[in-house]
Amino acid sequence: MTSCLNMIRPAGNCQVIGARRLGVRRHVAALEHRDPAQRDGCSKARTCPRTPKFAVGIWRLAIITLLLSFPLVSRAALYNFTGPFNNNGAGNAPGVIPDNDPIGLADSHTISGLGSQIVNVTVTLNISGGWNGDLYAYLRLNDSPMVVLLDRVGVTSSNPDGYGDTGFQVTLSASASHDIHFYQNFSPSYNSDGQLTGTWQADGRTDPLSSTRGSLSAFNGLNPNGTWTIFFADESAGEQSTLVGWSLDITNVPELANVALLIFGALAAMRALGSVFGLQARKKLFASVVDRFKEMVRDLPDESASRAPDIG
Questions:
Q1: How far apart are CA 194 and CA 165, in angstroms?
Q2: Which of 40, 81, 157, 191 has the fewest CB atoms inside 10 Å of its own CB, making it the most exposed?
């Protein structure tokens, strides 16, 4: 064990914590330049307590656990799009989905600044007028496979025209209870304009008569940064719908590069400082890492924030 030498403090408060090796030599050199009365204030040598090895392990484990938990923090970014929407040169007013025309209506936006991986995507649609059973819609990210949002809702082999309700004001989510294709089977609600409301699963069918379906969860795991495109088409003559607005809510996981750098930096600093100054240095280092962790989380997009993306 390393012995305590004379201290600066008065007798009765003599203690050196974690002073060893190089720390002891520096401490002695500093004392040699002080007044003899101060150096002799502590006449009785005492044993310096060492930092227990298990405490070192606990602090190291705590830092690693904290940092490794950071990638699990996810945030949602909400993007609202209200037009005016391009009508693809069909000669109609902005937002109008051309009746019985495969040219349809497309709207694309480029999003940047999000994390590296999608955890969840929800879409809201605000469509007025028309005949709901006429509409087809899909959502696509860059060159990923498209996810069908609507495919002539209500169409069956015995009902080729689908549902005749007028418009949608709905949220589409992979976690919803029911498929929007057969919404009339699940006690739907409508607003004062006759639009369908509520939260539904995306239609997911590439053929309205098919039982094979896709889902918005197909975007999970992809990088959310890039061009998102929504497309609508009216596939039967007689009524005309208008796209009033739509939104995209992306829950994503942040970039991991900064986290990795923080892990290695914190461990290296803890090893260097802890070997000289002991447990107190580790406590201070841990506190600074926690503060940095909070800053990084605070800098992520706020879940309730409405982002204004660049328009591609």
A1: 7
A2: 157
- Shared-domain flag, residues 186 and 228: yes
**Domain end point (choices 212, 232, 253):** 253
- Give the pLDDT of residue 310: 39
pLDDT at 63: 58
Can you give the pLDDT at residue 233?
96
Instruction: Provide the pLDDT for residue 268.
Output: 60
Q: Can you give the pLDDT at residue 312?
A: 39
The residues pairing with 252 across neighbouring beta strands, listed in sequence order, are 75, 118
Same domain? For 138 and 226 the reply is: yes
Q: Backbone phi, then psi, for 267, in 5-degree steps?
A: -65, -40
Residues of the chain with pLDDT under 50: 1-25, 27-29, 31-32, 34-45, 54, 71, 257, 301-312
The whole domain housing 69 covers 51-73+255-312
Specify the pLDDT at position 57.
Answer: 57
> 94-117: string of b/e by CB count within 10 Å (b at 16+)?
ebbbbbebeebbbbebebeebbeb
Considering the domain architecture, whether residues 279 and 248 belong to the same structural domain is answered as: no
Tokens of 64: 């690693």
Instruction: Give, for 167, the enclosing helix (H) or strand (E).
Output: strand 167-173
The CA distance from 8 to 41, in Å, is 7
Record the pTM: 0.66
Query: Count of domains in the chain?
Result: 3
Residue (of 99, 112, 207, 193) closest to 151 by Cα position:
207
Contact (CB, 8 A) for 237 and 101: no
- Six-digit token pair at 129? 């007028």
Q: Is-contact 213 179, C-beta < 8 A?
A: yes
Q: What is the CATH number of the domain that holds 117?
A: 2.60.120.260
Same-domain check for residues 26 and 103: no
pLDDT of residue 242: 95
On whether both 64 and 9 belong to a single domain, the answer is: no
* Structure confidence at residue 40 (pLDDT): 46
Residues 218 and 296 in one domain: no
For residues 131 and 80, state if they share a domain.
yes
